[in-house]
Automatic annotation (TrEMBL):
Residues 19-437 form the DUF112 domain. This is Tripartite tricarboxylate transporter permease. Residues 497-519 are annotated as: Disordered. InterPro entries: DUF112_TM (IPR002823).
Amino acid sequence: MDFTPIIDGFGIVLQPTNLLYCLVGVVIGMLIGVLPGLGPAATIAILLPITYGIPPVSAIIMLAGIFYGAQYGGTITSVLLRLPGEASSVVTVFDGFAMAKQGRAGAALGIAAIGSFIGGTVSIIGLSVLAPVVAGYALDFGPPEYAALGLLGVLLVSTVGNGGKLKAIIAAAIGLLIATVGRDSFTGAERFTFGSLNLADGIDFVPIAMGLFGLGEILYNLEENHKKVHAPAKVTKVWPSRQDLSESKGAIARGSGIGFGLGVLPGGGAVLSSLVAYAVEKRRAKQPERFGRGAIEGVAAPETANNAAATSSFIPLLTLGIPANATMALMFGALLIQGVQPGPQLVDTHPDIFWGVINSMYIGNILLLIMSIPMVGVFVRILRVRPAILAPITALITMLGVYTVNNSVFDIYLVIVFGVVGYLMKKFGFDPGPMVLAFVLGTLIESSARQSLLIFGGDPTGFLTRPISGTILAAIVAVALFPLIRRVVRARRGGPAAAPAPVQASPTAAPDRETTEAK
């Protein structure tokens, strides 16, 4: 393995400007993680217009810092206030808040910071080793392979993402439909423009993202955040004891592996990884009844897993050009805004971005470890800002940001429309993630599929004759049929046909419905 690009990447990150953007990104990420409801996806969507005036490497380093920094911030309110700041920190509430009630909030935050740092670092090393290998194999990809891979990405997120499967598939279908608006790139014919010149070039990614994740989240959270915030627990003795470290080391090791593995898969991500890591530790425990009542492994495992997953989810984005989740779809859009096409060629055409972003995560994780505990008091004070004050400021920034992209009033109207759509989707249990992901991948799927049909002379069976595309299509069939096969097998064994119940906490530590609802 040639280490020269990696060393050059550290040279890029250690430039004062890029170090500053890395620091800004992780601080904003921690702040967003602390504020319940907003989340990294909404924040990245709101900040997309700002990236126009920033060099590509600096912009992506900052946005990446926001993503994995939010995983740290969400822990603080989960432990101190029984209020998950980020969806991936929902499971941390179960034992973290129970530890805080026992006077061990410091130990919970300390082990969460240590586990997050270790999980993130392990995942970054895996990313550094695995990403170039995947990119090398991906050079064999052509239009048929990209069409099949894009379809697989949409299907995986639709079937294993948050919310009901049918609702996720409907949202993805709407996203694919929106991607067809505008002129046909092959024939020049206008589609679904209704005679509007503003729609002739299609709908831009920025208004959709800022509407669904920015304005939509603001409207939804204004309605939901009506409960009073609990008085935060006192933080003392932050550094965990030897016994705490001994009890947590296995959970941290397993959480690192689970987070890295599930983060790579489309639809996996930090939320699913934290749930699986918690369930694994509870199942392995000799005394599972401890979980939900202050088991330190119940904090260490999910916090390690969600940070590892946040990092490894960059692998399919940077190497294949396929976003693994909604936040990665926004990162995909940010790269396109900068004129950079994510995919197998990225490591060769833009090694500064490829290795600069990866190596910035080493620095970012160190910064987060240093700042996570000393800034707890600041974050608790921020929580006292009323949503009624914060929401209008955020909405104003959103509108100004989208206008500055194209100096178009029509884009403001689009943000309002998609903001209402995003609010209604959240209100009725639809996850906007599959819709955004399908929109991002829609153009890739359509253009690659049509190019493939031209190559095959109109014969769709040509997709099956190529080894890679045929294998991917077989995986698509397997993913589509897996729920049905599982149901049939359970029925034959005499077990319940329904899906297994999610991980539950004990009644003493169970959070309210509003706080556990994933964003």
